[in-house]
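Morning!

This is the sequence you dropped in the shared folder:
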Amino acid sequence: MEKRTISKVFYALSNWHDFRLKIFTEGIIIGLVAGIITVLFRYSITKAESLHKVIFAYLHANPILFLFLVCILFLLAFILGHLLKYEPQSAGSGIPQVKGVILGMMKMNWQKVLATKFFGGILALGSGLSLGREGPSIQLGAVIGQGISRLLGRTRMEERYLLTSGASAGLAAAFNAPLAGVIFALEELHKNFSSTALMSAMAASITADLVSRLFFGPKSVFNFEGLPILPVNYYGHMIILGIISGFGGVLFNKYLIKSLNYFDNQRIVPKTIQAIIPLLMGWFIGFFLPGILGGGNDLISDIVAGHFSLIMLLLLLVLKFSFTIISYGSGVPGGIFLPLLVTGALVGGAFGNICTEYLYVDSLYTNNFVVLSMAAFFTAIVKAPITGSVLIVEMTGSFNHLLPLITISMTAHLITDLAKSKPVYEELLDRSLNKQKLESLTNSSHDQVITELAVCVGSKLDGKKIKDIAWPEGTLLVNIKRGETEIVPKGNIRIIAGDYLFILINQNQTFVVSELAGECTP
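The structure's back. Tokens below.
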């Protein structure tokens, strides 16, 4: 069976044009299915969140009903706890899990994850926890890609492309932002921008986005069209905001991990109902400030509309920051993608308020700081500056803001580098691997796969002859693609940056050769 699979990979490498066309077609199929699933997921959460105002109206009229609400929250916590017990891989945002599977360091049961993530995500997000639908949508899209790969009997090499395509489709449908979906999937998950991966991801992303737009309309989740161009004399303020966002991102990552560790180690509340902690906290605070509940789409709209004073913005910032960390720490299905954008918007709103009131900045540009801070805060936490910038470009509908976006994003990125803060999804993946002791699989698995790696500038492979490289035991270099040229591997051939290597290796050792190839910065 294994020999037959490997021979299929060799056939694909020798018929690369046909293989790319097949991957492109499969990307469209994945985009269609992932788009439908994500639309259903997004619609269900929206309907559940719309009940919050009705519930609070009843609570304000009859406070005694809060006791009935507490019973409902305990039931929700019980269901969420048992869903996670049934399938632990559906916990959290799901992005670290997808990343681990693509890198060959984890395994997912796509059917179990699809069911538990879908229903668990609706319960967690619909119940008001400060979590986002974008991370779960990415995992849902990825497991759909994996499921289609398994149903069609595709090779592991092909499955890696289809996982990436599904993740791209999930984010595109969740945000109505197809370019951001592609860039995030390639920049953060796949870790290279090969033409094959790009074609498949783009096909899936655009298809899923079309499905989403047919249902929700053509506009992106946040619509900042008509935003004025920030004058150059305000760039100093923007850099200060980038520094603040950078330090804010460092704190967010630090306390997010602390929250996860606390919930792992706490013995006060049974593990199967520990979600009751953020649920009770959220609904108690939400009784007075309902804006902190849920992902925060409406909160961003209110910030942009100028509905909050400086004191209220700062209060909401502290509460949203804390509630998001506690909600995610409980381990229930739900992501931080949207809440961290909301937190960035609150930082930008407060900063813009200070600038207009005390630093004589024209109030016309207050919302510029809101939007720019969203990109900076995202970059500081995720360390994916291209995704953050492209996402905001799609939201504003203009490339006129690209220079300030890149400037503030790189400022925030520099601060996190100086603070030695790791990207949040990388840190979450490392934490999961250590917790589950999956690194031991490196020596226990004998499943051989062919994986594609991009050689990065300055990596351990760049400029070296094949025979001089200390390849891991059992590794076979099968093919080298340099542009459209195919090179048969021989000992004296020198590998250069930009080459794509196709390597036969034990499945759970792919990360070892990935370290040799380096991490490319697009």
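Headline: Confidence is low (pLDDT under 50) at residues 438-446.

More detail when I'm at my desk.
O.
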